[in-house]
Every structure is written in structure tokens, then in C-alpha cells.
Amino acid sequence: MTDDRDIIVCRCEDVTLAELRECLADPHSRSFEAVKRLLRTTMGPCGGRSCREIILREIARNEGLSIEDVAPSIFRPPTTPLKLSTVAGSVAEDDDAEGGGGIDG
Fold it and tell me: Is the CB of residue 66 less than 8 Å from the CB of residue 35?
């Protein structure tokens, strides 16, 4: 039989089924948001695409609810990515406009 410590629930944050079940055993951490904050699930590069349903299913099983009755976390997709040079360029332009532009000023 497979051990819960060998089953990975969240690949991005390397969270096992045993860790998830241990988290859900605490009465203060039985919501999706609590699990997310404590274990960092859904916060990796995939944004929860691989673990969200597994976590919802496990919370529903733990609470004796249907999966539709479990409140999911708020999904916040990333906004438009910016190149660092874009941000750095605007800072340099702001410094020049103020007459400063550096330590010597």
C-alpha cells in the first residue's frame, strides 16, 4: 500500500498528502485559504492547476461535504508580465526629470 508521505499533492511546493491531511486535522486550518497560507499550495509556478482539485476533494472528504460545497480560494491570475528593463527605465527617467539621478544628485 502506498504511504501518504510518498504521494505528492502539490508538485510546485512539494507538499505530500500526509502533510495536507495533517494540516486539515487542525480545526483552525480546514479551509482552502488556510491550507494555502500554511502549506503554500497553489502558489507555485502552475498557480494551482495541478493541485487545486486534489485539495478541494481532500477538504470535502475531510469535512463530509460535496466538492461543490467547499469554498475555493480566490484565483488571482498573474497580470501582464513586465521586463525589468521597463521598470528600471522608468525609474531612471523619473530621476532625470527631478534633476537628481544618483547619489551625487
Answer: no
Cell numbers linked to 60: 470535502
Q: Are strands 15-16 and 8-10 parallel, antiparallel or unpaired?
A: antiparallel
pTM of this structure: 0.66
pLDDT in tens, 37-65: 999 999 888 888 889 999 999 999 999 99
Cα 81 to Cα 95: distance, rounded to the nearest angstrom = 23
How far is it, in rounded angstroms, from Cα 99 to Cα 105? 7
Helix, strand, or coil here: 32?
A: helix
Beta-bridged to residue 8, according to DSSP, are 16
d(C-alpha 24, C-alpha 98), whole Å: 54
How far, in Å, CA of 100 to CA of 93, rounded? 10
Report phi then psi at 27, rounded to 5. Answer: -60, -20
| Nearest to 31, CA basis, from 76, 5, 69 | 69
